[in-house]
Specification:
The chain has about 170 residues and is mostly helical. The protein has a domain at about 1-105. The protein is built from four helices and two strands. It has helices at about 1-35, 40-60, 70-105, 110-135, and strands at about 150-155, 160-165. The chain has a two-stranded antiparallel ribbon. A hairpin with a 4-residue loop joins β1 (about 150-155) and β2. The radius of gyration is 26 Å and the shape is flat. The two termini are about 45 Å apart. Keywords: Electron transport, Heme, Iron, Membrane, Metal-binding, Transmembrane, Transmembrane helix, Transport. It is a multi-pass membrane protein. Its cofactor is heme b.
């Protein structure tokens, strides 16, 4: 179990560092190629998002040792910043599409629909994955499994002090 968790940690760390490099490259390209007067929501959210992403990197490197008092507080802060980055990132895509529409008068509805379907799918997957084990433990059938109905009646014989199990 430990090896699997350790591998997931390294995969997480590598993917997040690659994302930070990509975001930094995008920020540099934005500064070089566009007028960044920060007069629209997309640019302001992007700047805030960039700062929060680097805050998340700093928090990630300050990981306390297992068992230390600050570990649970660190975990919550790291999780909360991660959720904030994800939500602001999605919001910034929508505001970017709106800014593109305002600047070019081109329709962005196909991209908006595609993004909405993608985000909805990711959210449903995220919510469902947390419940998958719970669903399996409840004996819920997913439609492709044979159902077996069992019925037993348990009664207590007080005189003999024993349990009787009888089929229905």
């Amino acid at each position: 179990m430990w090896k699997k968790t350790e591998n997931l940690f390294y995969v997480h760390a590598i993917l997040q560092l690659l994302a930070v490099l990509l975001v930094t490259t995008a920020a540099i390209m934005s500064v070089k190629n566009f007028s960044n007067s920060f007069n629209n929501s997309h640019q302001r959210i992007g700047l805030a998002l960039y700062g929060i992403i680097w805050l998340q990197v700093l928090v990630g490197f300050l990981l306390p040792q297992r068992g230390s008092k600050g570990r649970s507080v660190w975990f919550f802060v790291h999780w909360a910043i991660g959720i904030a980055v994800a939500l602001l990132g999605v919001l910034n895509i929508y505001t970017g599409l709106q800014a593109y529409h305002d600047k070019t008068s081109r329709s962005t509805w196909p991209w908006t629909i595609i993004l909405t379907v993608q985000i909805s799918s990711i959210v449903l997957f995220y919510l469902f994955q947390d419940k998958w084990v719970h669903i399996q433990n409840q004996g819920v059938t997913m439609g492709n499994e044979p159902t077996r109905i069992t019925c037993q009646e348990v009664s207590v014989d007080d005189k003999k002090k024993e349990l009787k199990v009888e089929s229905c």
